[in-house]
Amino acid sequence: MMSEEGRTLDRSSLDGTSIAGAASLIALGNIASRVLGLLREMTIAYLFGASGWVSAFEVASRVPRMLFDLLIDGLVSSALVPVFSELAERDRHELWRVASLVLSLVTLLMGLALLVMEIGAHQIAWLMSGGFDAQLLHTTAYLMRLTSPAVVFLSLSGVTTGLLYALKRFTLPAFAVAVFNASLVLVALVLTGWLGLGVESLAVGMVVGSAAQVALQLPGLRGARLRFSVNVHHPMLRRIVKLYIPIVLGLVISQVGIVIDRNLASRTGEQSIAWMRYATSVVQFPLGLVSAAIAMAILPTLSRLASPPNPALGEKSRQEPAAEFAKTLSQGIRMVLVLILPAVVGLFTIAEPLIALVFQHGDFTAYDTQQTALALRLYLLGTAFAAIDLPLVFAFYARQNTLTPALVGVLGVVVYLVVALAPVLFRALRMTDLVLANSAQLTVHAIVMLWLTHREVPLGGHGLGNTLVKVLPAALAMGALTYFVQLRLHAYFPGGTVLENFLIVAGAAAAGCGVYGGLLFLMRVEEMYMLLTLVRRPFLRWMR
Is residue 162 in a domain? Predict the structure, then answer.
């Protein structure tokens, strides 16, 4: 007869298998969304270059996304998934009642937000981009009125995603963002290429894409008994709000930072926001695939280890989870360092040919490539710090401390303003000032979070310094070789065609990856072997 411990281990194994499967599915959807997101930016660059119109669309589309991030996105992970998951296990009828209530209230709230954006579009556009000239400001307000309905669909999609996650139906939500990006690309190409519309095609594509997210996930709600309901006194609603309130401060601070950044950028030239947008899309690619993925992977373990110890077990029950917490967090940070440092160095060395390869088509000019590559290099100065910052923030969330990251976020905004506005004492504001300020903000935030984390959970003795000492020289050596190979290939392929840029980027990247991997093997970096095991596992299963 199997012991209780054996049964527990067996359940844990099954849970681990299901979690791994879900994580793999979500990761696949994440990759698809990142690739299609890059295709979306390539399409926008091809159709409209880095013009003021793209800057206007960036500002207009940012407003519904900001509302979604503030009111829904944080709500889903912090409150909806935990509450919905509990009800899904305990009482499906109650789950449908609570889900109906949330969907109804979200529809009403976002409908009201839609009305405010439609009426006050010009005022909101001025708040976000007061540096635009009158004509471009009018275009921004016009695009904002077109994109506003997206906030309703984005919000309904977010709540539906939380509900499907609670029901352990991961397939459709995993590809929701990919469908959004694909829809925007298709609509923009059709409306611009066939019907001759201008930049408003992007706004229409955004609304269609957000509606497509909802439509994609509806089949996953099979068996759901949803109806319109507005019962603000429901106890579960109060619980959801209580869980969400601690998250709001950090979200408000981040959104205020975005408003300030967009407004200042609009005062540095009408193309600046467009250049910054394209550079950001490149930076977000490795951040999403590396930092966000690893942070999400370690969060469940950190949350379990951060749970209150059993007092009956004495001091040992408090020490062991704390040590395991530090070990798990350190492993995550070490893995981030191994992957993000070569990405940062590599992108820095091949910035111009990469930007030319990805974006320099159609209305995107060589000058746009130079300015976007400049912005990219300056963003990369803070990218490694941003990558290790996310696991640190999640570590505080796992310990149910959401206030500290929010307060550090306030410090980050102050640093941004000081660095961005200091040059104004001597000269006019430039786009590069804002990008440098953003990197400084990310750097200070990560350093302060690392210091605070080390005070709470000492990270010494877990190999962070050893990994950095090995990985950083290897990444720099990789960067030197990548730069040299790029120069040699550029001498052979000076024409700047798509094929030539591809050969330059691919050749330099292959040489850099080869020398980086070889150096890690020579130095016996543990994380390299872990990565190889993870990569080889699917192939071994297939061969069996």
Answer: yes
